[in-house]
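Hey team,

Sharing the Dehydrogenase E1 and transketolase domain-containing protein 1 run so nobody has to redo it. Sequence (917 residues) first:
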Amino acid sequence: MLSKHLSTRLRTATPRRLYHDESFGYRAPRSYQFTDYTSAQLANRSENAALLRYVDSVRTHGHRAARIDPLDLIHRMEVKALDPHRYGLYDDEKKYNVNGIIWTNPKVETQGENQDEWWTLGEITRHLRSIYVDKIAYEYMHSPSKSERLWFSHHLEGNASSPHIDQRRIHGLLARSEVFDNFLQLKFPNLKRYGLEGGESMLPALDTLFSCAAHASMSNVIVAMPHRGRLNLLTDLLAFSPTALFHKIRGGFELPEELGAEGDVISHLTSSADLAGVKVSLLPNPSHLEAVAGVALGKTRAKQYSLLKTSPDDCMLGDRVISCQIHGDAAFAGQGVIMESLGLSNLPHFSSGGTVHLVVDNNIGYTTPASLARSSQYCSDVGKMINAPVLHVNGDYPEDVVRAMEIAFKYRQYFRKDIIVDLLVYRRWGHNELDLPGLTQPLMYEAIAARRSVPQLYEQRLLDQQTITVKDVTEVRDSYKAFLNDQLSQVDGFRPSANMLQSQWKSMVWPASPEANDNPKDTGVDVDVLKSVGQASVRVPDGFAIHPKLQRHIKSRLTSLEKGQGLDWATAEALAFGSLLQEGYDVRISGQDVGRGTFSQRHAMLVDQAKEDTIVPLNDELKAKGKLELANSSLSEMAVLAFEYGASWERPDLLPIWEAQFGDFFNGAQIIIDTFISSSETKWLKQSGIVMLLPHGLDGAGPEHSSSRLERMLQMSNDRFSSSETKPNINMHIVFPTTPAQYFHLLRRQMKRNYRKPLIVAGPKGILRLSAAGSSIDQLAPGTAFQPVLLEDKPVSDPKRIVFLSGKLYYDLVKERATRKLDDSVAFVRIEELSPFPFNAVAEVAKAHPEAECVWVQEEPRNQGAWSFVRDRIEDVLDGRRLRYVGRKESAVPAPGVGVLYKKQQADVLAGAFKGL
Ligand SMILES: Cc1ncc(C[n+]2csc(CCOP(=O)(O)OP(=O)(O)O)c2C)c(N)n1
Ligand SMILES: [Mg+2]
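Structure output:
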């Protein structure tokens, strides 16, 4: 049991969230509270408890009977809960006071304004069924928030939502989509286009969202979507040139050839368009379904952050930018990153004020029917982990789709949380147009083949209502076909263009251009500035009680700064962060427990022992222009890394860092590295300054706390194998720094370059505080910079052996060499930057000692670490000398879990480096 005193203190402690809100400019969204029932309404609810149970039952269970499935594949059972008899309500003519039970007035905003109103049971039933058991099915009664539940009831039952339905616009969108799909089918019959046939209502749904955003004076909609109907969206609403598409389909470049990019397939093309003042941007994405989800969130949040800086004080999170994610049903239910991103959606460091999710739900994924693809009834059920409301809507009824989308937008605006629209449609062809769906779904496809298309059904409805004429229909369809034909005729003269250095990227250069400055010669900082930043980084305001154990941390930092010697890793990092903040850059470091640091080394965030208040001295004490955001994240790797990566697309003025708790755990985010970080530039011309900090090194911690799998990162590098080849536009820098000063310069170089490039850091664990690894302040001073290769301070003049290596093993080797009295015989060469490989620096050392034997030493097993990457490259500059391997033998694990085995292996590695001397 907690003491009463402690439990009161816990309750009254400043909410931890506050520091996130205040210290870096985050503005919490407005919160919306529905007013409570009046006492008269409560009395009426009690008096008519049976009616209340019935009404709530329809709200809760109506979706189970609603007509939402165009193919009627969902086997609906009779829903007994919707029968008023079950609640003792038999007389349809009996009148009830509905005040406080159902909502009747669209105009009232608060509960208390409702008046007594008498409705018969028959009227109540008809009213409720027309809402809850029709073409839109609602799931909101699971929400633990009374305000949200009341908001929905009010909104739906009071008919508050009756959007202006522009039937001609809807018709135009549907008809053009059909013309487009038919056109592609005719002209490119062998193309996998992932057409929208059967799901055309996606377009009016998105059109509604975009126009809602424009009406709400938003500036941006960030859209992420998979393959289905992507070309339809691009070419119609998002102004993508059909000529460019046709050129691409014929095998042409979508990007200017001279940029050296390798491009991507048609189903990943992108565009942005200005739609009535709101800029709608469709993000590029890889084939890995849903991987883009976190990227979209990060991009959206970062955009809002930038906009908030220039917006009036009353502009809150989510006011200016909205994220819209489109999903397939199978992917939404199956891909774990969805769960991870939903988990981020309402966290202070990750929320962007609510995403509108649109699931284009054709009840099939490739050949797998819904019944085998998910364990839940609806594909949207994963959204219930955050209690997101869900609107299921029948795609055969585009006007209901528009309505559903409008409600979704309104909900998001009120509550700034995620909402899901499950758009039930069908897929007219196979997974792609070359597939035979009848092989696996003969009955489903017999049913589909018998259906008239969604555009045609809607067209017929409007013709029947005499809203449009046959002439109108012909005009819409023929003119679009003529437009597409005209566009096709222009393909031969088409030349792609690119505008990757627009708006916030204007001050950057293209990394492959001659203006790109790879390695700024000076990333040092004035010593006085360093000292003042360092002092501020551990300054604690009066009255703020830090943990007594932290005094040592503070003292050692201040002492090292004073002496100008022995700066440790965390100090170098604080100096890099602080100096960048002073120069106007923002820094965001995200990951698990980054505030304190996994190894209790960082302490960039301090916690008051009495109140649990939090401060970030680099913000509070330095008062720089830039802000340091310490985003302690949820326990996710994929979505969080994706998020930071998305932010890096948006903000070249931000140093975006993702830190793995231990390097090993990055592999949960491998997809993001493969398909975004290592390849976005060559696929989509997207630069990113993302930094991945991956604690790496064998120290007896066993198979899963030892290795950041450097070999995998290196294998993804596009570096040349030989110095005789042309220098590539490297896709990512991969480093294994061994001193705090090197780390300091790497962080600063990341921002001081005139372009942005991902940086992968095999980071320290054991050497975080190792005094032998300490740096002097002079190594951070003006005129200094990162050194891709580190030679020893005291060069060995005539070594018998040159040991090339990377990383922290260096310090053990130096000790071992001294013990063996081989200081004059062995020279160590630390390769600090592996990719791009520093051919020249390595060649210089090799040439200086033509007789020396050359070995590579690593502690990682032979099939891991940098060996396979460095071997060809070092030998390339050895003029015929061979490079000998010293290290662990091949292994299925990065490190053994048995202590004695680890020690023996480690001792063998060290001994091996000096064997024979
Ligand atoms: C992570 C991943 N696994 C598998 C695939 C192969 N694949 C492409 S589309 C698809 C089916 C997607 O179904 P759904 O999400 O329902 O979208 P639909 O094609 O029905 O619109 C699959 C399995 C992929 N692209 N990504
Ligand atoms: Mg599907």
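The chain has four domains: 39-157, 167-493, 527-696+736-780, 789-914.

Ping me if you want the raw files.
A.
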